[in-house]
Amino acid sequence: MKTNFLYKVTFVLFSVFVLLPILYTLFSVFLEESFLDNLRLINSSTFLLLFRSIAISSLIAFLSTGLGVLLAFLLYKTKLSFRKGFRLLLLIPLFVSPYILAVAWKDVLYLFFENHTFIASYKGLVLILTSIFTPLSILIIGSALSNINSQIEESALLIVSPRTVMFRIILPLIKPALISSFVLVFIFSISEFTVPSYLGVKVFTTEIFTQFSAFYNHALAVIQSALLILISIFLLFSEGKYLSEAAFLSIGTKGNQQKFHELGRFKIVALIFLLAYLFSSVLMPYFMLVFQGMNDLGKAFDLLKPTIFNSVFLALGSSVLIVLVGFIVAYFSVKASKLKKIFDWILLIVFAIPSIILGISFIKFYNQSALSFIYTSYAIIVIAYIGKFTFIASKLISNAIRQVPKSLNEQAILIGISPLKRIRKILIPIIAPSLFVAFVISFIFSFSELSLTMMLYPPGTEIMPIKVFTIMANAPQSLVSAMSLIVFSITLLLIVIFHLVYQKIKNTNV
Amino acid sequence: MKYLSIVILLFVMLSCNNDKNVVVVYTTVDQVFSEPILKDFEKETGITVKSVFDAEETKSTGVLNRLIAEKDNPLCDLFWSGDPVRTIVLKNKGITEAYTSVVAKDISTVFKDAEAHWTGFSARARVLIYNKELLSQYPLPKSIFDLTADTLKGKVAIANPLFGTTTFHMAALFSLLGDEKAKQFLGDLKNNNVVIASSNGDVKKRVIQGEVFCGLTDTDDAFEAIKEGANVGIVFLDQDGIGTLVMPNTVNLIQNSKHQENAKKLMDYLLSKNTEAKLAKSCAQMPLHKGVDTPTDVPSLDHIIPMDIDYQKTAQKLEEIQLYLKDWVED
What we know:
The structure holds two protein chains of two kinds.
Chain A: H1 2-31, H2 35-40, H3 44-76, H4 83-89, H5 92-95, H6 98-113, H7 122-146, H8 150-159, H9 162-173, H10 175-191, H11 194-199, H12 204-213, H13 218-245, H14 267-293, H15 297-335, H16 342-352, H17 355-366, H18 372-375, H19 379-403, H20 406-414, H21 419-448, H22 451-456, H23 464-472, H24 477-509
Helix pairs in contact in A: 1-13, 1-15, 1-17, 1-19, 3-4, 3-7, 3-10, 6-14, 7-10, 7-21, 8-9, 10-13, 10-19, 12-13, 13-16, 14-24, 15-19, 15-21, 15-23, 15-24, 16-19, 19-21, 20-21, 21-24, 23-24
Chain B: H1 2-15, E1 22-27, H2 31-45, E2 48-53, H3 62-69, E3 78-81, H4 84-92, E4 96-97, E5 119-131, H5 132-135, E6 156-159, H6 164-177, H7 179-191, E7 195-197, H8 200-209, E8 214-218, H9 219-227, E9 232-235, E10 246-254, H10 260-270, H11 273-283, H12 311-330
Parallel strand pairs in B: 1-2, 1-3, 6-7, 6-8
Antiparallel strand pairs in B: 3-10, 4-10, 5-8, 5-9, 5-10
């Protein structure tokens, strides 16, 4: 009963702090006199643009997930040399803001083509966003691959070929992760506006941004965002359908060994592929930042020094809360019937709302005398991050929970272990790797979030991504690159520290 | 419930910071230039300045949209804008408060709102930045209309005219030339394969890299390029014709804000000769007061023929042409 109570409290708190501001803004827009006039502005060209954006985002999600399968298999299921190093290096694009990466990519491609025609196109957009989001797919799929029980693969390999094992056993087993990867990358791509805006490519979010920033028509921007929300709801509905049909997986429990495959004669080919991918999609833009920024590192550090503590503290606190809420939602959504998955839907809707609209909703709701204690403190940012990123954490954790054999829980119930103890002693230790991944991803996103933070940061406070981007205007490229490098290095250092702490806790509990 | 109470208590404690000796300023002026001046004000007056800066990534509209959203309960006391457009948008939405600063009495009325809702200081101009090496074989454009010449086909860049100072530049052309001639000019520019960059900074970068021969940008971007050692030059266009667009910084009070007296002090400080001297030094902005010490490489407004425009009317024109500009960009 206590666990149900926890779920209900979390649901009420989330609804009050996050959902209510959004509903408040939506109703304000619907009640505006200009609502019908704005509605008339939604025409065939709006839908054409929306469909184009859906097609582009689908392609990016497909490519990222495809590359994610290939790379995650090589890094998590084979005995390839240096695979742990590759795992870390391939995550680099996640640590740097998409906008900064787009700037670096544009400079790299200019070196080859001597003009921006290729990069300032849909092809360029797909290339850049695929390279940015593939690490997310690798993390999600890699985490699922690590959880496959080695006995299943070994038994299958006794009867059928490795190729058949891959296509008939491994891929079906990680189907929830593949769908999650596709869904997350799709939503990230369709709601991304900084990269297409920088490249000058027109997509649905740049249209929303134009209404917002050039015409100051907040109402139309909100109505257009509602279309994005509908697309996301449709996506979740489809995902739910596929997941309900997916086989429940068996997880490699503590003490079980993972199955690592030998690549034989393909080992060299795999290494060359990994190196080529690493060089072309990760190291080239990163080297561009190093090349441009190494002379200004000292100056950049002085500028960013006052922001480090605030930013780390804010991202750390937010990610702990995100994982906590994500876990509570995931735990109940896995068990709940379709109708009771309303919390899942709310998380997705909030996640799909463009950051600027979310920011405006929070300002309109919280900027009132009675609530100014939230609006004028860091609390507003923490609430915004929880609203924005809990969906990702919840997805990752629910996938992991789905992989835990039901029999474990059933046995625990039979011997009378209480629900809270079952969660603490059985479930959490088993899904700890996924909890850690959810924490790391939440931290990275909270640490680098810009659009929402820009709308909400309290006057007089200093937060790292804000500082980088406010200094960026009119600062020399070398200083901007140097600041990006410092943000990247701090993120990397913190993740290594988190990993060491996690390993220590894990080893202590073994 | 115990933990929830602690969290609420913490929030309340945070909210108890009712420091009266503060002023909250929102600014679209680049942080590298505005922050040192705000820090100097803090040192000299003891008034704490709480600032919100804007970012290039949001086309410097994040702060403006925040001000509009905060209209019913303003957190900001003073808005310092890099150009008059945004201030006029706020004035039209009833967000600004009138204040006449005695410090600005010798600034020309051209750079002030007739109802004292905003006052201009330190100006930038729209200039042509060009790559000296690439343009050496061709005649140097002297007029904005030279940018439609065949020799510059595909070799001129301008920033997206839906945002920032480029919008205002286009609106100024429309109000000065009339709709027909201005549309003809923009059509010719489009036919000449003008490159639409994401920002003025991007225009500067494309000229330095040599992707285009020249482009329209603001003086601070152009001078920054020269300071970085790029092989570029600057032309103040149309000195024999319609003149160059001059855009002052503007400052205004926010209606019903909480620290009006401190905001007035900061407004007076920003409108002083001393601030203009600092901005001339840091980003080559041209003072509007007479007799301000400026570095030798900073041009004087006395030697530039400005476009003869009314800022309020130009801002209204801007609203009229936004849809046309959107179609022009997307065509």
